[in-house]
Fold this sequence. Notes:
Elements: H1 2-42, H2 47-83, H3 86-92, H4 97-140, H5 142-145, E1 151-152, E2 158-166, E3 169-177, E4 182-194, E5 199-212, E6 218-230, H6 247-267, H7 271-298, H8 301-316, H9 321-344, H10 353-356, H11 359-377
Helix pairs in contact: 1-2, 1-4, 2-4, 2-8, 2-9, 4-7, 4-8, 6-7, 8-11, 9-11
Amino acid sequence: MKTLHKYLTLQVLASLALTVAVFTFVLLLGNALKEILELLLSGQVRIGIVLEAIGLLIPFVLVFALPIGFITATLLVFGRFSADQELTAARASGVSLLSLAAPILLLSLACCGVSAWINMDLGPSSRVAYKRLIAEARNDLANVQLPEDRLIYDFPGYIFHVGKNRNGNLENVMVFWIKQNTTIQAPSGKIEMDTTNKEVVVNLFDATFITRMTNGVPVLSAAGKFPIRIPNSTNQISKPRISDMTFPQLQEELREREQLLTLLPATTNSAAEWRAQIKATEKLIQQARSQMHEQIAFSFACFGFALVGIPLGIRVHRRETNIGVAIALVLVLIYYSFVILGNSLSSRPEFFPHLIFWLPNFIFQAVGAVLLWRANKGI
């Protein structure tokens, strides 16, 4: 019995390592290809920064890669175990399927613990660190953000056009200052970094201003040097989005919003304003609560996948890897459709979206338990 347990556990672990690595690679391509390629093609970012960005994304994609890898590994191992008649030989020796599956179910619970750590702490914090790293890299690449001979809309309040950009030394610069209804023209300029405020500064030299007044009359003015400050985009992500918060951060966010809800009657001036703020605050509370439930519920995916994957692998009775992968992807799609539904209703408290995240766990575990019991009985 110990030999069989060791054999199956090692087989599942080996397949799990391979499938998680493959799915991590695929998900990394989907998540990071555009942003990281942009940094690489700029030619002015150290390879170390690119590798660091990829490393920070790995925990985020592991949130999905680990459950997908586990159900794929379970289907492949037990499919081969059944196709090679090893299951028949074990049953002939008096070993039940439940006893064979016990270490795999324990392994799935261990993976649930790892998933909980990744979902509730490591994944969100790594995602925030990745976004901050990308933002800092883009701020350091201000010359890349001002390419030649094209209109640039990347900076709020301004539209840039640069004739030439030679390592931050600009020629024939035109800026549309939207708020002031002003066009700025300068024969030269220079991009510099304000290290104190961590802002990009575009200094325009011998600048000419054409401001169109409300009566349509243009007013001309000039300046020997005119700085345009571009706010640091890293400041915009000082507080992560709810979807990027760790579990303790979500608890604090929920506590703050619930406290705000009790203070609203004393801080509003009218009934209409009070109702609007109540509705907005309740929406944020529901979003935080839904995210907390999603993180916890998704951590139990591996156990439900193990309960379903073991009997399905035996029932399929195939050695081919492509069959196992196809079944795994279908099951993951079914599971994750509930997650998508819960997220789409996260701001609709009347539908109890935080409970929707638990439905796939209950369904997979119930169906898996029935299938495993039937497979154990040979039905």
